[in-house]
Design goal:
The chain is an alpha+beta fold. The protein is 41% helix and 15% strand. Helix 1 crosses helix 7. The protein is globular.
Amino acid sequence: MSLVLDPAAQDLLFREARTANAFTDEPVTEEQVQAIYDLVKYGPTAFNQSPLRVILVRSAEGRERLVQHMAEGNRPKTAAAPLVAILVADNEFHEELPALLPHFPQAKEMFFSERPVREKSAALNSALQAAYFIIGVRAAGLAAGPMTGYDAAGIEKEFLDGDHQVLMVVNIGKPGGDAPLPRLPRLSYDEVVTTV
């Protein structure tokens, strides 16, 4: 059985898409980012909690504040990317549950009244949303360069409050520079899937 999604879209989102380390200087517009969000917001999360928050770093001052917290090898590409997004988990996501889960108003207190439970759930579900975000960037015809090489405590102190935790930093733009490295191997279906 084949997939319903057009092969060209499959290539765009998965087979031909690559992590980008260099970009052209073409800007990423607010309209593109809005279109990405308007698509990926439909990805599922537990209790529709939607804990991902996105900080777009557009200004030179913001970029300078961020780059100082990136690992040495990630600084030049973060400084040069047309747009940088800091993806974070909102540990107080439960405050939005009455609007996001109106048919189950007791979920906020029943399941998420304790901070450690919220932190664990926010980490998992915002990571799901971060993956949707990367696919959305690809759907917009852009490339994403997600990174976890940074001083998390530094970024959190610089940009966040105690209720948010940084997940990753994503450089975004039209890919440029040298050709990407050859695609790395992937595990086969039989190595991943077990039927019981």
